[in-house]
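During the second half of the funding period, the structural biology subgroup turned its attention to how the target accommodates small molecules. The most pressing case was pyridoxal-5'-phosphate, which had performed well in the primary screen but for which no bound structure existed. We therefore specified the complex as follows and requested a full 3D prediction, including the ligand pose.
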Amino acid sequence: MPRPIQATIHPDALRHNLARCRQHAPDAKAWAIVKANAYGHGIERAYAGLRGADGFALLDLDEAQRIRDLGWRGPILLLEGVFEARDLELCSRLGLWHTVHCDEQIDMLALHKTHVPHRVFLKMNSGMNRLGFTPTVYRAAWSRLDALTQVGEITLMTHFSDADGSPGVAAQMARFLAATEDLPGERSVGNSAATLRHMGAAASGGDNLAAASDWIRPGIATYGSAPDYPEHDVAHWGLRPAMTLAARIIAVQQLQPGDSVGYGSAFVAERPMRIGVVACGYADGYPRVCPTGTPVLVGGVRSRTVGRVSMDMLTVDLDPVPGAGVGSEVVLWGAAGDAVLPIDEIAHAAGTVGYELMCALAQRVPVQVDAAGAGSA
Ligand SMILES: *Cc1c(COP(=O)(O)O)cnc(C)c1O
């Protein structure tokens, strides 16, 4: 028998979450963001749940090829554009749309030979200062692109640094709107946080961006993590976990007061208690920094970790679940029947975000697709 640990991807949850995001901007087209191997879920596994999107957005050319190999004929967008001139040949061949964020990428396009004009997303740096043209030079970049025979439609795009909290999106949005006011073309603003918090019914004040975004770009929310946790959780946004990480108890220990558990004797029992040793450790992608008290579901019942997480094992309190023993299932994040343990709670205990945990699911963990939700879109 293989080591009893398993990740499960839930296509029905992906479908549901994408639909939830769309409700905030019903007239917009939606990219499914599948960079980083679909946030650790696996592009091929996530595809069934996300194929109802209007396009797939990602970073790596080989990931674009994989989406085409799955039979996707619709739009694919490279969110960072091309990295060198010959990437443009693959864009021509696979019909990829690509972001243009710097002059060097325009130079490459100007030298590119193609029969079919490329669809490009021209990125504005409206304040985040990672990628894009500042508002003052944005129009010049647009004009340069517009003059190229290699370029067809130009979509105007920006990305927010603070859509998940304060100061919010208003200042960046104002800069974007002012600098693009009389430019033609579709617009794309809005990651998950911007879509959920600043579009549709949830939008506060005058910052409903839905009208200004022909394409939304929800990533993390489609995978069932709240972009603004702990201010809001997945229940608030109506999102469901798209990944469950579960393992089984492989040993039980009966502790007496004063007994310690694991490396560093980081947990000491104050009373007699049973603990379960679970076949999941930091080499599986469970954060080592999670302290005693990090929530787990044992047989669907909420309990907590005790002591330090080791490479291949972690230990949990069995007192809330007297019936649990060797072989009982422990959900580290995700769903156990109707019980849900949002990945955001574990990420928060580790001082990080759900994104990092999903993306760091270790190679050695076997991953299955939840057959119940794998039907057509
Ligand atoms: C990753 C990414 C997104 C999605 O962000 P989430 O916070 O996961 O919703 C949107 N737009 C761009 C440009 C990105 O790189």
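Two results from this model are relevant to the next phase. The CA atoms of residues 56 and 183 lie 25 Å apart. Residues 33, 35, 79, 159, 191-193, 217-220, 227 surround pyridoxal-5'-phosphate (CB under 6 Å).
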